[in-house]
Design a protein that fits this description.
This protein is an alpha+beta fold. The chain has one domain: Cytidine Deaminase, domain 2. A 5-stranded mixed sheet has the order 2-1-3-4-5. Helix 3 links the parallel strand 3 and strand 4. Bound molecules: 2'-deoxyuridine and zinc ion. 2'-deoxyuridine binds next to strand 1 and helix 2. This enzyme scavenges exogenous and endogenous cytidine and 2'-deoxycytidine for UMP synthesis. It is an enzyme of class 3 (hydrolase). This is Cytidine deaminase. Keywords: Hydrolase, Metal-binding, Zinc.
Length: 142
Amino acid sequence: MILSESTKNMLVAEAYEAQKMAYVPYSDFCVGAALLAKNGTVYRGCNIENASFSPTNCAERTAFFKAVSEGIKEFDAIAIVGNKCGKEGDFCAPCGVCRQVMAEFCDPDDFQIILGAGDKTSVYTLREILPMGFTNDSLKSS
Ligand SMILES: O=c1ccn([C@H]2C[C@H](O)[C@@H](CO)O2)c(=O)[nH]1
Ligand SMILES: [Zn+2]
C-alpha cells in the first residue's frame, strides 16, 4: 500500500507517544511502536522488560498482541522509534522475533515498516527486511 505523508507522520507521532510508556529499568532503551490496522485503528506498543530478562516484550510485539487479542489481524503499517531514553538516536530496526511476528499477519509486499528518528523517516516492506521468511505457506509445501 502507498502511505500518505500525513499518515506516516501521524504514525511516527503515535510511536513517540507509545515510547513514553516504555518500562525499561534494565536497558534504559525506550522503544515505541504504532500499528495501523486496515480498519483505521492505531495500536500503540512499548517495550516491557523483566528482571528475568527473557520475558521482555518488544514494543512492536506489544502492539501486535494488543490488536490480535482484540480480534484485529489485518494491518497496513507500523511505525517504530527507539533510542536511549531521553536522548536522540538513530533508526531502530525491529528485531528478528518481531519480524517473524509481522510475517504471521502481514503481506510481505504490502505491509510497510516506518522507522522514525527525529524528523527523519525511512520506509521498508516486510519482504525487504525479512527475505525468505518462514510462514504458514512454508508448512504446506512438500
Ligand atoms: O526493535 C526493537 C529493538 C529492541 N527493543 C527493546 C527490547 C529491550 O527492551 C530493549 C533493548 O534491547 O529494546 C524493542 O522493543 N524493539
Ligand atoms: Zn523485537
